[in-house]
Design goal:
Elements lengths: L1 E5 L3 H10 L4 E3 L2 H6 L5 H14 L3 E5 L5 H14 L3 E6 L2 H13 L3 E6 L2 H9 L4 E4 L1 H6 L4 H15 L4 E4 L5 H10 L3 E4 L1 H6 L4 H23 L1
Parallel strand pairs: 1-2, 1-8, 2-3, 3-4, 4-5, 5-6, 6-7, 7-8
The chain binds erythose-4-phosphate.
Amino acid sequence: MKFFIDTANIEQIKEAQDLGVLDGVTTNPSLMAKEGITGEENIMQHYIDICEIVTGDVSAEVIATDFKGIITEGERLASLHKRIVVKVPMIKDGIKALKYFSDKGTKTNCTLVFSPGQALLAAKAGATYVSPFLGRLDDINQDGILLIEQIVKIYHIYNFKTQVLAASIRSPLHIVRCAEAGAHVATCPLAAILDLLKHPLTDSGLAKFLSDYKKGQQTQAAV
Ligand code: E4P
């Protein structure tokens, strides 16, 4: 399973890249605004900066919601850097745009997906990635992991090439459950990736190994 980081924060992207397990980045207009990135030129430059840190795909979301606008904006985004994936919302004109980009060989990520039917449409339109938002479903007491399982199953039955990019991940458990479900990618906050490291038995086991090593050194020195 690929790991993407879900942020527009340069420091966090660098930290995840340094860890050596990062396969890409997803952003959205809320994440860009959170970093204080405003104005078209600054936003475009920020995408380029992100692309120069990582070695994988970087999703950049369009703001337009009409077909012509999505195409114009998506083509501009795609021309910024070879790593850019055009992120398109799950709306009627979005589906038409996904098909257009797919025919042109431009990579896409269909975002704001909350049902298997939406994911089926995205795959039919030739999206490179589909982004089901599992955390937001959990937030309203619906089963986000079930959605990932359903989409993986449907794509497998029909051999769709669209990759399931599990999004809106809140915890390390979400990441593990997505891996079990067969998601191709999980896009996560840095904290959720780092939380995968944690286990109390690792901490206590390491403390014991180090203290035993130290005792051994002291005994050796005393002989
Ligand atoms: C996906 O690409 C989205 O940017 C993201 O995962 C949304 O997550 P949120 O529900 O935490 O905002």
